[in-house]
Sequence to fold (247 residues):
Amino acid sequence: MKTLDKNILFIMFVVLMIAGVMSTATAYTGTGFSHDKSVSDYTPLSLNDILSKYSDTNCHAEKTGLCTKVSDGDTITVEGVGKVRLVGVNTPEKGVKGADASTYFVKKLCLNKEVSIDIDNSKNTDKYGRTLAVVIVDGKNLNEMLLKEGLAEIMYMPPSEFYPYDWAGDNTHVASHTSSSTDTTSSASKDTSSSAAGTYIGNLNSHKFHYPTCKSVGKMSEKNKVTFSSRNEAINQGYSPCNNCNP
Fold:
């Protein structure tokens, strides 16, 4: 009987070991995005050292509250709002190279400090109930800072009020992830060459704006064309995105 008990215990031990290995091997890594930045890159920097590199954002502070928790580089908790998922960006998942640096950067700027958010009017929350927003720190766009610092990659998932390609740096990585809720993400990513130059074409008659490569632009008369340097400029002037190229 004792021998049988030992055999059962041994089998249970082996099963648990195999389950542990499989769990580690299949750990969630998101898009797999990683980067080479380290915590030590930001430890000696003051808030002013970081913030002074960036211009004030034209995003609007809809809600303001104390940041009480930083879950990772793209998710924080704001008092009076709850969990906030930084829209348009994606940082490395826990355990992936670069995750600690991205999280540290956000903690340095936000934790136990008052921040503001500009909520995505096109899609207020994600499937987990987190508020989708741009986080504003001392007038600066945190989402943009993460991209330009190389601490995050672009994750554009329309519909969205915000177009993260407008925040990108020269070497910003673009997520290979494609939203299951839309078929336009991949086509939008393919048109980054035109958006990177900051050019959009509007139609004076329809008040729609397009990528320069959109087939609708080819059908447009020259007298009806108007050029915008950014997506926000087009929207602020009353133009809406084309339903075909989804700029």
The helical segments are 2-25, 47-51, 99-110, 142-148, 185-190, 192-196, 215-218, 231-236.
